Structures are given as structure tokens and as C-alpha cells.
TrEMBL record, chains A, B:
It is found in: Membrane. GO terms for cellular component: plant-type vacuole membrane. It comes from the Eukaryota. It is a multi-pass membrane protein. InterPro entries: ALMT. Residues 440-451 have a biased composition (Low complexity). This is Aluminum-activated malate transporter. The chain crosses the membrane at residues 52-71, 83-102, 109-129, 135-154, 161-181. The keyword Membrane applies. Its main location: membrane. Keywords: Ion channel, Ion transport, Membrane, Transmembrane, Transmembrane helix, Transport.
Amino acid sequence: MENASSPSPPQKPTTLLTFPKALATSSSKIKHVIVDFAIKAKSIGVDDPRRIVHSLKVALAITLVSMVYYLQPLYNGMGDAGMWAILTVVVVFEYTVGATLCKGMNRGLATLLAGALGIGAESFASLFGTTAKPILLGCLVFVLVGAATFSRFIPNIKRRYDYGVLIFILTFSLVSVSGYRVERIIELAHKRLSTILFGGATCIIISMCVCPVWAGEDLHQLIAENLEKLANFLEGFGGEYFRITEGDKPSLASYKSVLNSKATEESLANFAWWEVGHGKFLFRHPWKQYLMIGALTRQCAYHIEALNGYLDRKTEAPSEFQKTIKEPCMKMSSEVGKAMKELGLSIKLMMHPSGSASAMHMESCKKAKEELNTILQTVMVGEHDISETIPVIAVTSILVDIINRVETISEAIEELAKQAQFKKSKNTKLDKKEKPNFLNDGGPPDPANGGKNRESVAITVASLNKG
Amino acid sequence: MENASSPSPPQKPTTLLTFPKALATSSSKIKHVIVDFAIKAKSIGVDDPRRIVHSLKVALAITLVSMVYYLQPLYNGMGDAGMWAILTVVVVFEYTVGATLCKGMNRGLATLLAGALGIGAESFASLFGTTAKPILLGCLVFVLVGAATFSRFIPNIKRRYDYGVLIFILTFSLVSVSGYRVERIIELAHKRLSTILFGGATCIIISMCVCPVWAGEDLHQLIAENLEKLANFLEGFGGEYFRITEGDKPSLASYKSVLNSKATEESLANFAWWEVGHGKFLFRHPWKQYLMIGALTRQCAYHIEALNGYLDRKTEAPSEFQKTIKEPCMKMSSEVGKAMKELGLSIKLMMHPSGSASAMHMESCKKAKEELNTILQTVMVGEHDISETIPVIAVTSILVDIINRVETISEAIEELAKQAQFKKSKNTKLDKKEKPNFLNDGGPPDPANGGKNRESVAITVASLNKG
């Protein structure tokens, strides 16, 4: 293992070689680190080329605003306050349009408010004479900064205005304190505010016009892709569990990222709130409903994680008991997976889910479930080895649980489709009252409308001319 | 519902009342909002009084550094560069010591590096004459800013040096660009750097000396508390599932926060990395191992979430089949809960887990499991209604899964105890070779050392003189 990168030739005296050898070793090590780093950086760029574009956009924005220093007419107008334009671009320019708008608006409004308050505080303190002024100003800064810092712990403020409060603290302290020394404070404030507006506007325009990255669109894609990831697991689970998958096995682990997607979804939804309408999304698109679907998807992912535990401890060959329930169990798993994939697709294409094939898959899922119940009822479970039987029964039970969860997800997607006015599929002849509610037994959702479903599902299936 | 807050008296003409009425309504609404806000703010302060202390600390730091403006000797030395001290305090002062150190160090080093590079770039560009200089500077800024922005997407850099890269971009642009206009750039850089160091040092000193909030300690508590939350669920689950809990039911939902604690744990561990030794934690405490335990705890929480699904759909009275397995099932659940509580406690007290009572509880858990297997083997499962039996069997299977997970958690805690040199309990007579590995059947962990365990558990139980 040692010196694998630079073996020393044995025929020459080693003492003379020590220095160049060490140099060669360390230089090859550095080379190795650099190459590794370059490969990693390249893969990050290839994974999502928008990252490279974003870097170029930031560089462009900063180069543009630094023109205030290079071009004489601009410099005459702004002077050294141009520094604030650069500072604004550096801290405001974020990856998505929503985040940039959020920071830009927060910075602009907070600067305005805090600047006005700061000037007010300075004039107020001036009334009390030169000795009392610094003491009064100090007290004012202490109280306001303390209160503002505390307000950052309040969830509603933290979520949307955290950066604004930070800038408020900064500007208020700077204005009220430097007002003690600077003579023409109004002029200073005016210059600074206009440069900040200039910097902020540059950011927002470049962010929105040059290859924009919309947080809303990312959220939309993420929710659809998360459904797809879970669907892939469910489609592959049967084959893996009953050991009939041969050759290259598809990796089932991609669902794991869904388990921890809460923070990403929430921040994207927050940023999407700031975004203007774009592409297929209007201003005030129901982003909250996406969070609801995301939460339900995550719920489902927790159950899949429990299911995945049973894949780890499977034995070499399936037991007798497994073989008897193999058919309906595999069908349940793959059909619920297909239904989920259709639901994800209906989000992706912004189509109403009632027109998709998901209802059909849920129906055959339900049939498989009944078949499984019949088999389990006839097979005397006690005849088999109990330690082999229990995990298999648990798997079927968790699968049924997942089916119920998928039904809830489907309802949430229908709600989204209603709120966001998704297109209806052409071959759907259903009106809203008859929308399919496919599977409705055993789960937590309301069991009130069990009667009509079968009928409406039949209509959907017929209208799709499939199966 | 309407106008509930200010009903208008019917005997007077309403037209005359419109304006005062509207005023009264809106003023009472505003009052309502303010009172609501105050109650919320108070509860946030009461929940964790360290938040109030933090707000006062920030206010103190800003008031202190603003002295550079008020006191003549300080102002003579620093001048308007004192502004940078205030700016530094506002952006660097974070809630935990680790986060403050992280930001302070990043800011200091990045300013130094970028300042030096910026001055270098400015002198280099000066060599090419007045016409070429701004073009050359613009190109340099473009390239370096683009590269630095891209580097923020690399996970390792993002995790620890994100803020440093931001400050690097800011300072490099400011120095190289303003160098085009400012004559004595070295003097400017020196003044700015010294004020930044002054602001940063103020932050770090106040953050560390006045009621410090250590990220490492918070992480330590969080991991222990998460184990406790899961333990509470498991202890209460049996009573809830078999409907024997009467009177005030303890809420079992507190475990839900564990499902989404990954981001918090990771950021705390990152900040803890920057912290110097404090209290019981030495510099380079094995924070990574806490993340490992946190991940295993979360795994366990996913299974508990699946278990929780079975609480939702329980019927009014327990079925016959449930009654037959009630005893061992409840014992399994409560004993694994107790074992988990002991593990959490051993982290909290920084005691070696081998001395705690958790091994004893795991042992009785294992006995209950064997008992359950015997009952299931004798009871002919087929005799009962299959739709009632399946979920119950699933519950027992998930419980067994949880027991295996807890064993893995216990191993991870033992590893932590070894790395962090936790105290050994006085009444433990075990040496390291004989450490108990209590439960070792059926689960994924290596089954190599199954023989010795029973013996060593017996020793622990005896040494504790309990049960």
C-alpha cells in the first residue's frame, strides 16, 4: 500500500533520492487531489448545467454593477456609494428567481424603513443636547436591535422576512450611529438607497431574464419526481422480494431521498410565493397544496422504508408460504406502483388525474387484494413455520397500508387539479360528481361514498380503452 | 359570526354609526392581532429563555461596537471604517457559539485572502496602461466571481465555507474595483481589516463568555431527547393499541419531530466542529458518531410511524386474536421502550451504556418475543377472521423490527462511549471483551458473537441487583 504512487528504484542510493522522492510523492498527491476535485466539480456541473449558468449570471451582474466605478459619468453620480451596489448584488443574487426576489424585496423595504427610523432617532436624540445624545442613541439602538433579533425566532417572520430583519438591524444601527458624525445624512441615505435599488434591480432583471430558475417549477418537478421514485420502488419490490428479478437489478434505493425532502420542499414553496406568474404557473398558484401532497408522499415513503426492511432479511429461496401468496402480492405491489406513476405523470403534465390510468391500476390493485384475502383465508396459516409466516403477513399488511395512502395522495392531487385548474383529459366523460374514488375499504379516509365508485371507475376504464 | 366583536345598538340610526363602528371593528381587530402576536412571542421566549438572552447579547455587541463612533479617540483611529465593525457584528453574531465562530473565521480569512488577491489584481492590471486596466480588471472579476460562485455548489465547500466564499466574492470585487478609484488602497484595506477583526472579536468574545449556547451541547441533548421521544411512544403504544389506557392518555405524537430532525442534526454537528472544548466536551469530540446515532434513531422512527398507522384504524374493542397475544406484545413494546430510555439516559449522563439497565430490558424483551412466538405457534391463526388477524401480526412483526433497530442503536452508542471515553458505571464488572450484545437473532447485524451474550447479560443484570 505504501509508496504505491512512486516506487523508488532499488539499484540507486536512496539517501540522494529522499528530497526529489518526497517532492514527487507530494506533487503526485496534490495532482491527485486536484484531479479528484476537478472530476467532482465537473460532475456537479454535468448533473445540472443550470449551476454553471447561474455562476455566469452572478459574474455578469457583478461585472455590470462595477461599471459604476469604471465609467466616469456614473461615478460622478454615485461616487463611493457604488460599493453598496456591488455588496447588494453579492448578497441578494440567489439561485432561484423566488429567492432573489425575496432577498431583494426584503433588502429594499428594510433599508427604507430602517433608514427613515434611523434618521428619526438621530433627530429625536439631537433635541436633548450633545451630552445626552450618544447615551440616548445607544439606548435606542440597544432596545430596537434586541427586539428585532428576538423577532427572528418567531416562525412566521423567520420564514419570510428573516433577511429583512437582519438588514433592518444593520441599516438602523448604521444610520442612527453614523448620523452622530456625518453632516449631510439625508444626502448619504439617498445615495445609498439609490445604489442599493440599482444593485437589487440588476439582480432581479438578470435572474428573471437570463435562463431563469423558478422555484415554483422546481417544486412542481420535485413533487412529481418523488411520486415517481416511490412508484419505481413499488414496481420493483415484488420481483425483488420473491426473488424472480434476474440479470441487472434496478436499484430500489432512490426512494430514500424522499424521506428527507421536507426542508427542500418548504423552502421552494416559500420562494415560489414571491415569484410572479411564469410558464404554466400563474401568480398565486396553489403552492401550499404541493406541500400537502409532499407530506402525504413522505408518509408513504415511511411505510416503504418499513417495507424495505423486509428486503434486507430475505432468505435465499422463497418459503412455501411466500409461494402461495406470490401472485396477488406481486400484483398489488406493481399495480399500486403503476397507479402512483400515473399520478406523478398527471402532475408533471398538469392533467386532471381522473382522466389518467391510475384509477384502472387501483381497481386491479383492489382485485388482487381480495384475491390475497381469499388465499389467506383458505390456507391454514398455522400449518407453516410461524417465524417464516409473520414477516410475509406483515409485508402484505404494509402493502395494504400503502394502497390506502396512495388513495389519500390521489385525493390531494385532485384537489390540486381543481385549485390550479389542470386540463381535463380528452377521453374523460366524467363530470365532477362522478370522479372516481376507487379504493375505499379499511383505510382512514371517509367511507361514505363507497357505492358509486365502482361504476365511475368502470367508465374511466372503458373510456381509456385499455385492459 | 359577523360583527361579533362590535354589535351595533339597534335603537340608533346606523348611517351615523358607520365610521366609528368601522373604526371600532378594525381597532379591535388590530388589538386582537397584537395580543395574539404578544402571546406567541411570549411563548417563544418562555419555551427557551436562551432566545431572550441571545437577543440581549446581540444588542449589547452592537451597542459596544458603535462606541467607535461615539468616543473621540476611537473615532480618530478608525473613522468611517467603524461602519464595518457594526456590519460584521450584525452578520456574524449567530445563535450558537459554533455558528458564530464559523462565520467569524470564514469572514476574517476570506477578507484577508480576497483583499490580498484584489490588491494583486489591481497592481497587475495597472501594468497594462489606463485603457486596458478597466477591461482587464472586469475580466478578472468575471472569471474569479464565476468560479467562486460555482464552488458554492460543491457539497464540502457549501457545508463549511459557504459564507467564506460569499465574503471572498464581495471583498475581491470591492477591493479590485474600488482600487481603480481610491488612491491609498493599502491604508483602506488595513483600516477595513482591522475593524472587521474588531467586530468579529467582539462577537466571538460575547458569544463565548455571556451565557454561551454551544451547538455541540445542543446536539448532545437533541440526540438523547430523540431517543426519549421514541421510548415514550413505545412505552405507551401497548396500552393504546390494546385499549387499556384509561383517563388522561399521554400524547404519543411527540416522536414525529424525530422524522424530520436530519437537517437540524447536521447543521449542529457542523457548527460543533468549529467549537473549542467546553464543559464535558473536549475539542474534537466525536460529533460524527452523534450523526450516526441520529440516523439510526430516525430509521427507528420510520418504523414507529408505520406502527402508528395501526393505531389510527383500531376498532372499538380488541378482537379475540388481539386478546390472546396481548400480554407478550405489550411487554415487548414497553420493555424495548424502557431499554431505549436507558440508552438515551446513558448519553445524557455520558455514562457507558453497558452499565445501564438497558441490557436487562432488552433481555426481558427477548423473552416476551419467544413467548409470543410460542403463543402464535399454538393458536391456529386460520381460526380467526383473517382481516382482523393480518394487521395484528403486522404489528408484532414491526415491533420485532424495532427491537433489532434498537440493538443497532445500542451498538452505535457503545462506539460513541468508547470514542468519547464516557464514564463506566461503578457497579459494572465487565471488561471490554465481555460487553453485552443482548439480542441477536433474526436481525441484520452480524450474528457471529451469539454465544457469549447471554452470559454477559446475566452478569450485568446480576451486577445491577434489579428485577
